[in-house]
């Protein structure tokens, strides 16, 4: 980059005109990400664990999620492809570089344990485990494991880890897909499955995944 261009950028930055679209986005930096995530901790917590507020809104765990997945979700909120009144203003605060940085920051954190599965009955957990690992062919429900991976730990940037995610959050997302309120998944993969699930199925699989722990060495 020539000195003149750098000087010009400096002027833009200095004048507060920088919008994030001028510069190519560089690799994610967890330290810058921590700074950009200062407002996020109110809900997603300093350790990225989020919070399962019983009977209330459930803030997802971000710690240990794949960076590419986090980036996609933030872009989806910004573009309105994914809608949530609580989250949208915070996604809109970030420029493209900050999105990459906060994704790097949260993705390198250790996976934390989840709430909402503690009081589930054995029968409910058994049903959840069945749907997660074997699916239910009578209802044409494919096992969650076939996309989200063994133990629900996630596969790459496309299939997020859902083990040790809060039950309230998993439940909300499945209902959102079932009701057509979330539709940012490629090829309606999740919508097709959620629409075949009863409320009890959703309750069961949410409780089971929330009760699963993810060991540190199981994550990258
Ligand atoms: C006031 C509470 C609140 C704050 C502050 C907040 N979020 Fe969120 N966030 C939520 C909620 C609620 C959801 C779930 C939205 C839904 O149900 O679709 C969410 C979802 C997300 C997701 C999607 C996670 C997934 O597994 O798909 C990401 C990524 C995220 N937030 C990042 C951030 C970042 C980065 C910040 C700070 C810049 C932030 N959030 C600030 C409440 C908040
Ligand atoms: C055919 C592949 C496929 C199967 C099977 C599947 N999923 Fe998904 N799931 C996806 C994809 C792709 C996404 C990411 C959507 C996006 O990009 O926003 C996703 C996202 C999710 C999320 C949102 C995670 C988050 O952090 O926001 C939850 C919860 C979820 N799936 C639960 C389930 C459960 C429970 C099952 C089994 C009943 C299941 N999925 C089966 C493909 C699948």
TrEMBL record:
PROSITE patterns: CYTC (PS51007). Binds 2 heme c groups covalently per subunit. GO terms for cellular component: periplasmic space. This is Cytochrome c. InterPro entries: Cyt_c-like_dom, Cyt_c-like_dom_sf, Cytochrome_c4-like, Cytochrome_c_Oxidase_Subunit. PANTHER family: BLL4483 PROTEIN, CBB3-TYPE CYTOCHROME C OXIDASE SUBUNIT FIXP. The lineage of its organism: Bacteria, Pseudomonadati, Pseudomonadota, Gammaproteobacteria, Oceanospirillales. SUPFAM superfamilies: Cytochrome c (SSF46626). One of its GO terms (molecular function) is iron ion binding. Heme c 2 binds at residues 144, 147-148, 190. It holds the Pfam family Cytochrom_C. Keywords: Heme, Iron, Metal-binding. It comes from the Bacteria. Heme c 1 binds at residues 40, 43-44, 87. Residues 28-110, 123-213 form the Cytochrome c domain. The keyword Zinc does not apply.
């Amino acid at each position: 980059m020539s000195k003149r261009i750098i000087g010009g950028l400096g002027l833009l930055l200095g004048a507060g005109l920088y919008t994030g679209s001028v510069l190519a986005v560089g690799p994610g930096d967890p330290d810058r990400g921590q700074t950009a995530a200062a407002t996020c901790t109110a809900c997603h917590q300093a350790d990225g664990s989020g919070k399962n507020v019983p009977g209330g809104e459930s803030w997802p765990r971000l710690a240990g999620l794949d960076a590419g997945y986090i980036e996609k979700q933030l872009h989806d909120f910004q573009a309105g492809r994914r809608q949530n009144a609580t989250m949208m203003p915070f996604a809109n605060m970030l420029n493209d570089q900050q999105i990459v940085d906060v994704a790097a920051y949260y993705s390198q954190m250790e996976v934390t344990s989840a709430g909402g599965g503690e009081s589930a009955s054995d029968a409910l957990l058994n049903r959840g485990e069945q749907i997660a690992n074997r699916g239910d062919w009578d209802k044409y429900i494919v096992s969650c494991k076939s996309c989200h991976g063994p133990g629900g730990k996630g596969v790459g940037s496309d299939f997020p880890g859902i083990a040790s995610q809060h039950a309230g959050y998993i439940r909300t997302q499945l209902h959102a897909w079932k009701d057509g309120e979330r539709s940012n998944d490629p090829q309606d993969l999740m919508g097709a499955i959620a629409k075949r699930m009863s409320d009890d199925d959703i309750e069961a699989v949410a409780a089971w995944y929330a009760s699963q722990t993810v060991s540190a060495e199981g994550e990258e």
